[in-house]
Amino acid sequence: MTKSDFRYAHHPDDVKYYTTEELREHFLIPTLFEQDTIHLTYTMYDRYIVGGVLPVTKPLTLETIDELKSNYFLERRELGIINVGGKGKVTVDGTVYELNKKEALYVGRGNKEVIFEAADGEQPYFYINSAPAHHAYPTKKVGKEDAEVIELGDQKMANKRTLNKLIVNSIVETCQLQMGLTELHEGNVWNTMPAHTHTRRMEAYFYFDLPEGQTISHFMGEPQETRHIFMQKHQAVISPEWSIHSGCGTSNYSFIWGMAGENLDYGDMDGVTPDGLL
């Protein structure tokens, strides 16, 4: 079964007047994982798709949705997959790829059949992002040993973290999709500090590995008009190109960042110092 919803883009002058309910309605993706279901959210920000796949009792096939007006999902798109659960399998046009937790798979444009399923009696949780593609690049698995790993932050600032670049142009050829995974060390709660924006690409954050009963406050908005959305484990949030994207949790956690736009340069961003935020 596939369930999908659609989100428009928003002007920052409008967003500054949104209520908490309106912010959550337009930017939060509250449900990604449901048994034997593929959940997809199509956003007009760079026509990005955020989704979750939870195959429990049967394999699930990625199908096209009305908004794509395509014969199959990847007819004009590329796809990034990161498993955040137990071992699973993804079959792409007959080729099987096994993904353990925190491993990724890039699937290029033109592949007609993508099937998700559990493996070895374990329960995978497949988080997916997709963007329009102008070229067909090869499908490629990226294990944790293949990631480009960067240590960031400082324990004194409560933001010590390990950043794993997975689907980025230094590892995988893509048209515009970029994805990675950041793990906060125990006792650290802040991510993406200093905050920043990047006008040439949008972004989406997905939070996981958060203990039960804990929460994350995700900060968004223009640097001088910030807003926040409280989030739970296995929820995602859409970040427009004009918005900061940062979070603080009541515990350490992990999150996946995904981006699309006209630029593949990871370092292209406009930073904001912590004392410059309002």
TrEMBL record:
Residues holding Zn(2+): 196, 198, 203, 245
Reactions mediated catalytically: 5-dehydro-4-deoxy-D-glucuronate = 3-deoxy-D-glycero-2,5-hexodiulosonate
SUPFAM superfamilies in alphabetical order: RmlC-like cupins
Keywords: Isomerase, Metal-binding, Zinc
CDD domains, per the entry: cupin_KduI_C (cd20491), cupin_KduI_N (cd20294)
Cofactor descriptive note: Binds 1 zinc ion per subunit.
Cofactors demanded by this protein: Zn(2+)
EC id: 5.3.1.17
InterPro entries: KduI, KduI/IolB_isomerase, KduI_N, RmlC-like_jellyroll, RmlC_Cupin_sf
Similarity comment text for this entry: Belongs to the KduI family.
Known function: Catalyzes the isomerization of 5-dehydro-4-deoxy-D-glucuronate to 3-deoxy-D-glycero-2,5-hexodiulosonate.
HAMAP family to which the protein is assigned, alphabetical: KduI (MF_00687)
Protein name listed in UniProt: 4-deoxy-L-threo-5-hexosulose-uronate ketol-isomerase
Naturally occurring in which organism (per UniProt): Flavobacterium rhizosphaerae
Gene giving rise to this polypeptide: kduI
